């Protein structure tokens, strides 16, 4: 058995290293959704393997065009942040436009320069970012952020929506996978943080312990009566796309218990880049709305499983050697 001990220990070390892959293994990614823009674009969440920037670009016929706003980011996860957009550009747009929100590397000089600080790619080799529709308005911003890096744990009939920004009073409505409204809460004009939304008891009770569900938080404008009515209050849309944010919930016994969070980029559709040099453009697939990343599961899993198999085989050999 002793002669097999060294390779077994080596594999255990490899296994331990691979076990740490889920967070960083998904690579660079960013998600954003349709929104009404007065002076800034809001990012739901992003993850960077290195310091860099989140940058808003004009869409030029399916290609990533001129940069019109940026914000510096440190390596790691970020969520619910604003990127100020050039007001001169916004003044030239009447109505709906399409923009790219992409992650860029930094050359370390502290200044964003598109030709040097080029766009990053995700694990699929596509631009790490989102292509979203915006409606340009001088009446204020409208956006919502409900998506987190993990499923929201709930132990009562309510959920929390991280951010609702509206240019007038209205509501944030929570819808199930069928589009049925299962909860709503009023919001005021401006930015509303951590909005608690009561859920219908029938929906909450329909979930079993540790069962998960996919929900969507959508912004509605009040029709003036102060009461939410999905058939009367206007759902805010941008070119037919709702101003909304999808998120997951999991019913648990005790939501206050801490759990480890694995950073993922689930449910994403990445724009595909052309092969370009620094400072050139990349091409987006038609209808792309979210950035690059995996579509479920941890990229490190296969390697971990392989390491486990190797360790098991070596242990088995060691046992035979003693017989």
TrEMBL record:
The chain crosses the membrane at residues 300-319. It comes from the Archaea. Residues 30-119, 149-247 form the DUF7282 domain. Residues 268-292 are annotated as: Disordered. Coiled coil: none annotated. Keywords: Membrane, Transmembrane, Transmembrane helix. InterPro entries: Slg1/2_DUF7282 (IPR055706). Residues 268-289 have a biased composition (Low complexity). This is DUF7282 domain-containing protein. It comes from Halorubellus litoreus.
